[in-house]
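User: Reviewer 2 asked us to show a designed sequence for the structure in our supplementary figure. I'm pasting the structure tokens here. Could you produce the per-position amino acids so we can include them in the response letter?
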């Protein structure tokens, strides 16, 4: 492999890791858009959607009151354990598990396992089939495999500073940054509050717990459906989002438990960390 090809492969893997970290937590941004345009190395990257020309009228009445109570309760809980599966067309499928907190910016740690798609194939080429993602209020870190580390001076971690991501061309970086900031369970409730067709589906049992199922369609660059299941404490137990990307259907299912669980995420050692912005610069992007 030539030096140029090796650098491009390293940067491609770095972009793929960013995509995985974003989609592991959320399938959409809070304007109702879904992932789509290509990133700097040809990988599909989440992007901020264009604002719809008109929004549905604000939800009012008993449904709005009930959902606002869910938003408040989930927001106050501050943290939860998360298990999710995401399928993003032919680009990516993955599973994620860990704990996230949102009291003072996003914090926490997820283990992300690639289960299919072209992004997973890119990651596997450098020996990474799963990675640890650590989320901090100003940046997140993705731990790659040994083969990746060999190509970046022995460093296993990639650091993504949100402000740096916002500077990426084509608006893709703003999409990454927005999605990283909007990964908490109450964001799904905010999406439903912006929908014009929210309905209470009914009572259901979800993972052995009695829940109320709500559903709605959110308008944006494309339409997507959002479903949530809420327990008797007004806390989300399950969320499902469905929409479309340029590579096909997007589906994410997430389960939440152990609200209020202690959450921490330490910054990896600087000597073992490569900065994403510097990796891009090394390619001349």
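Assistant: Here is a per-position design you can include in the supplement:
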């Amino acid at each position: 492999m030539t030096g140029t090809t090796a650098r491009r492969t390293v940067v491609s893997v770095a972009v793929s890791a960013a995509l995985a970290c974003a989609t592991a937590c959320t399938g959409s941004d809070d304007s109702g858009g879904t992932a789509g345009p290509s990133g700097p190395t040809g990988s599909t990257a989440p992007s901020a959607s264009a604002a719809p020309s008109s929004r549905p009228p604000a939800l009012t009445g008993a449904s709005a009151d009930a959902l606002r109570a869910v938003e408040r309760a989930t927001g106050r809980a501050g943290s939860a354990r998360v298990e999710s599966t995401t399928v993003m067309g032919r680009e990516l499928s993955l599973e994620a598990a860990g704990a996230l907190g949102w009291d003072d910016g996003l914090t926490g740690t997820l283990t992300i396992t690639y289960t299919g798609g072209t992004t997973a194939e890119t990651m596997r080429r450098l020996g990474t089939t799963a990675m640890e993602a650590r989320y901090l209020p100003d940046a997140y870190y993705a731990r790659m495999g040994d083969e990746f580390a060999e190509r970046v001076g022995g460093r296993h971690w990639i650091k993504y500073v949100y402000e740096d991501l916002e500077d990426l061309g084509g608006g893709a970086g703003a999409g990454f940054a927005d999605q990283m900031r909007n990964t908490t369970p109450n964001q799904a409730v905010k999406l439903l509050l912006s929908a014009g067709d929210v309905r209470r589906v009914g009572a259901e049992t979800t993972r052995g717990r009695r829940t109320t199922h709500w559903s709605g369609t959110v308008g944006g660059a494309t339409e997507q459906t959002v479903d949530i299941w809420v327990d008797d404490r007004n806390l989300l137990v399950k969320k499902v989002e469905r929409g479309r990307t340029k590579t096909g259907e997007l589906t994410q299912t997430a389960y939440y438990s152990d609200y209020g669980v202690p959450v921490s995420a330490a910054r990896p050692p600087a000597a073992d960390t490569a900065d994403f912005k510097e990796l891009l610069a090394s390619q001349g992007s």
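For the response letter, you might also mention the following. Helices lie at 3-25, 61-77, 118-125, 146-151, 162-166, 172-181, 186-193, 276-283. The radius of gyration is 19 Å.
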